[in-house]
Each structure stands twice: as C-alpha cells, then as structure tokens.
Amino acid sequence: MKGLKSLLAAGLTTLTLSLPVSAAQAPVHFADLNWESGSLITEVLRFIVEKGYDLPTDTLPGTTITLETALAKNDIQVIGEEWAGRSPVWVKAQAEGKVTGLGDIVKGATEGWWVPEYVVKGDPAKGLKPLAPDLKSVQDLARYKDVFKDPESPGKGRFLNSPIGWTSEVVNKQKLKAYGLDDSYVNFRSGSGAALDAEIASSIRRGKPVLFYYWSPTPLMGRYKLIQLEEPPFDADAWKTLTDADNPNPKPTRSLASKLSIGVSTPFQQEHPHIAEFFEKVEFPIEPLNKALATMSERHTPPREVAQAFLKEHPQVWKAWLTDDVAQKVEASLK
Q1: Full-model pTM
Q2: Which residue spans traverse the membrane (predicted)?
Q3: What is the C-alpha separation between 112 and 117, in angstroms, rounded?
C-alpha cells in the first residue's frame, strides 16, 4: 500500500511538472527594438504582461526585417512598436495571415527628411546666418550640396540615413535615387539609432548644417527647432518602388502615412486573446511619452526603469487599457 501511494504521488508530481508549470514558464518573446520609443514601449508592455497576466517575458535582438521574419514564424511573439505596412516582409506575412498589427499606439507619429531651422532662417542670437534660405523641399537639395558637405567626399553633400537593417534605410536609399540626389549626396549610415542621434546632436550644438532622416515620437524632435523638407504627395505605386531595395528605377513620393501598432504573431493572438484585447486598447499620449523619452535619453536611464516610472506617474493612461483585476495586479506590483 505504501508503495502504491508513493507511486501515485510520484505520478501526480510528474503530471503537475510536465503540463501546467512547463506551459506557464514558456516566456513571451518580445522584439528587442534598438530605438528609444520602441524600447520604452516594449518595456511598458512587458511589465504589464508579466505582472498583470503572470507570464514571463524576454527579448530577442535583430534588425527590423529579421524581427518581422521571426514574428511571421512565431519565433518571437510581439513587436512593441511596429510601423505596420511599411516593409515587404510585413505586408507578405500579414496577407498570409501570419501576423497582425493591433491598436494605434501613438497618434501623430511622422517621419521624413529634416534640417535645423537655423540652416534656413539663421539664428542671430548665435551669430548664425542662413546658409540655405530658399531650401523648402527635397527638390532644392541638389543646389545645396556644398552646404551639407561630406568631410570625406569633397564635392558631395552628406545625408544621414537610418542604420542598416531598418526598413527606413532602404526607403531613404531609394529616395536618394528617386530625387536624383544619389550622385550629389553620400548615403551615410550610422551604426545604431544612438549613433544617429549623437551625430545630429553634435552638429546642432556646434551650429553646423546637417541633413538627416528622422521620425517621431522621439526626444530629439522636441529638443531642437527643425524644419521638415517637403516631398511629393504620397503615391502607393511609387511607395512600392521605395520599399524594394532591388528596384532599379524608384519613383518619388513621401512615405506612407505612419500608423504605429503592436505587431503580434497569429498563434500568440489565438492563444492569448485577453492580451490581444489589451494590446488593441494601447495608446500613448504623445506629450508624456516624449517627456519620458527625453528623461531616458538625457539621463541614460535604462528603459525598464523609465517604463516603471511612466506607469507610476500615468495610471490614468494604462488603466484604460486593462480590466480592473489586471490593473489592480499591475498597480500592486508598482508599490
């Protein structure tokens, strides 16, 4: 009898360990995004999933394209800030029903080509004269290449592009061709989003002219006076030629209107409908988000720490995304 009890106990223990616990311990894989808003939003979502839904999470690094490919294969489950519809990888995976974008997480997001305001208007307080007073659009850039002179390529200007591996890097490279600027400007790629920020900030602090790609939400956009250069109206067919790195004859157009969503794999959405419902409701007001990003950037604070501070300071924002019981668990974990 004693042996039978031991056997039954052992069997129950094995059953307990092999089913619910192992399933519960499987982490949700988030994309490790290497730009400021992406990393902060990711950490806010991870904290809520961990504390409110009792699921472990981790992050896996990669470029935008490799992470979208991994999402389509369910090798990762969540991309916290997905600029949905911009890359062929995403468009194909979405059409095949492998991924979906949930919510509209930051309204008013934008991207484009920018210059500091003093390049066009000057800055008398700093003794800066306007170097390109008639610069309004990308079409004007050809005659101002000497203003944005590349120090390593005499006779050419320098355009600061996104890091290699970002979807926008491909688009901007194709735009240089489409605007007839590839012979007059160097397509300069920084190694990371942080390196791009540093290059822009350094030029602005020294009052030097700089031409660069950028986007919002970001702390940099609120920190400096910038002018966005005009581009041709959006054309869907032309946009396809810009997102295709191998297209030899790209057409000019401004970028697709920005919609930031939370990208999820279809298996994850099916397995966790309550979390998917929460993701659908996520919306970050632009002002407190930019403030949090500025804090993170200026103080070099880890994104996880800034995310928890954001949750503490703005309960009215994130509680609107959650059911009462989940919100209570998240709130209790912040104390």
Answers
A1: 0.76
A2: none
A3: 15
